[in-house]
Amino acid sequence: MEEEVLFKPKELFDKRLKKQYHDAAVEYFDELTKRTGTDPQANKKHVDEYLAAKAAADEMAKRSSSAHSRKVVAIVFMIICFVAGAISLVVAFVGEFKWVALLIGLLLIGGGVGLIFAMRKAKKTAAKLDEELKKLRAEEEKRLKICWDDMHAMNAAYDWNIPLVVMEKATPIIDLDPYFRPEKLAYLMDKFDFPEETDPNVSTVGVISGQIQGNPFILERVIQHEYAPKRYEGTLVITWTTYSYDSKGNRVSHTHSQTLHASVEHDAPYYDYDTRLIYGNEAAPHLHFSRRPTDAHKLDEKGKKKAIEAGAKRLAKLAEKTIASEHSFTPMNNDEFDVFFDATDRDNDVEFRLLFTPLAQKNMCELLEDPNPYGDDFIMVKDGKLTSVATLHSQNFDYSANPELFLNYDHAAAKRAFVDYCDKFIQSLFFDLAPILSIPLYQMHKSHEYIYGQTYRANVTSFEQEALANAMNPNSFYPKNADETLPLMLKAEKSTKMGRGDEVTIHAMSYKTTPMVDYVPVMGGDGRLHDVPVHWIKYDRVECNHSIGVTYAENATRESYNKLFSAGKFNKLLSGDKAQAHFERGLLAVYLGKVFSAQTDSEIESIFKS
Fold first, then answer.
1. Are 520 and 231 in contact (CB under 8 A)?
2. What is the pLDDT of residues 9-28, one digit of tens each?
3. Angle at Cα 415 formed by Cα 414 and Cα 419, nearest 5°?
4. Residue with more model confidence, 63 or 389
């Protein structure tokens, strides 16, 4: 199986791995069901009872709403009858006596009296139905609680990284880590020239790391910030009057209306999320190239043929144009690959051909041209020993695998949601890796043994430090006067080892917002200048530093952590107003409102051992 995984990734995924991943997710869920002692049949019975109780309550709610509507209608028409009847009686006796008005007035008054009884009846009915609805809602809540009780042990047992466990079980060749270790980061930095992110405008919100045949990769999701001009628009409606004379000499007025438009530009913050995979491999170490999607998967056979013919001519002209340059472009013998992969900026023809063998070209074309599941949706950049891949499908996918995504009162629905998430997670991650896996040389070139001999500056990588900080409640980090509707940029700036963990300085940046108005003079159709108001927001940067602690709790699970937390084991440690803790994937981050020390780390270790 390993040979097939390495050399024909898409074909194997479609024919075998997709089902294996799905079956592994089903198996994991079923094993978890047995381990927690959850009874699916009993839960199904209780869910059916809950749904029946909910349906009865919803039906009663409709009847109650209808009764209240009848009561309101009766009150409205009662008032109308009394008011109209009184007016008719007044009209009947004012001036000459009017029998018709008197008769209408009496009928309306009588109708109003009748509506009083109808209103009272509707009110009584509504009150009775409300009481019955209250009982039915109570029964509904009772039945729902029973369902949640059925699933309590299972909901408590969900842990972080479950899809990674499922994926690794089905495809051992893809070795995934529980978290991004300093050793892996040092390996990437020392051997593959991986740059650690220091840009204060980029903050890591999630990271997955692993290796393929000893060659490391990380999948990182970041939030990016920039301060750039923003266009604001405003309008003002003006009116004016002109006069003319008709054929008879009469002066006639004409009213005119016009909407004036104005705009201004002021700087404002922009935020964007980006997910990319970075892979280290020493194969073709001097090669650099980039490629962007060519949408080959959107073409039919006729469209592909036409695109290849036109592309081949374009590439031939490019080869002729660059023949005397330092990095001349030499087309491959495969126009289909060259046109659709479109890496025309490659700078080492020998290494490019070494990397993209006929099999690699075939694999890549299958990946690019088949719309299932994603088609050509990826940017790929090779920069020496590092290759990065950014796919469109990953930009909006939640890779957090947060256990709260799986919580449910209905075992059958939970299973569907759990397996569906695992299927989507694994498929998405696999096809982030697919452009890498499609190149056999990458997997054939096994990394030489790396011995981690240096002392890394922190016990936990800055990637994990930032990801954990971003997962915590932001209320502890917002600078004074910051607009809390805006995203918060958190950056791990300084780290000091404290026992097994780190004391980390988190730089928090946001903006104070102030509504402003500019008045822009605009010439109107009346021949006058008018000040058009343009509303805009003034953004003043606000920032501050916070100290958090990040440490290891490798043998802990979400379930064991939650039990310790519920038992009050962290109460003494988290005694400040804004103090908080966040646990995931064997890592714990704490905000204490004070410096995190080796003594604090020792206290945390003792809590987990208790």
1. no
2. 899 899 889 999 999 999 99
3. 120
4. 389
User: For residue 456, is pLDDT > 80?
Assistant: no
Tokens of 526: 């009346």
Contact 180, 194 (CB under 8 A): no
String of DSSP letters for 483-513: -TTS--EEEEEEEEEETTEEEEEEEEEEEEE
Whether 145 shows a pLDDT value over 70: the answer reads: yes
Q: Over pLDDT 90: what percentage of the chain? A: 70
Handedness of CA 422, 424, 427, 431 (dihedral sign): negative
φ, ψ dihedrals at 257, nearest 5°: -135, 140
Element at 537 (helix H, strand E): strand 529-552
Q: Does the structure show a pLDDT above 60 at 450?
A: no
Give the three-state DSSP class for 174. Answer: strand
At 270 the three-state DSSP class reads strand
Q: Which of helix, strand or coil describes residue 273?
A: strand
pTM: 0.87
- Asked if residue 163 lies in contact with residue 425, where contact means CB atoms within 8 angstroms, the answer is yes
3-state SS string over 56-92? HHHHHHHHHHHHHHHHHHHHHHHHHHHHHHHHHHHHH
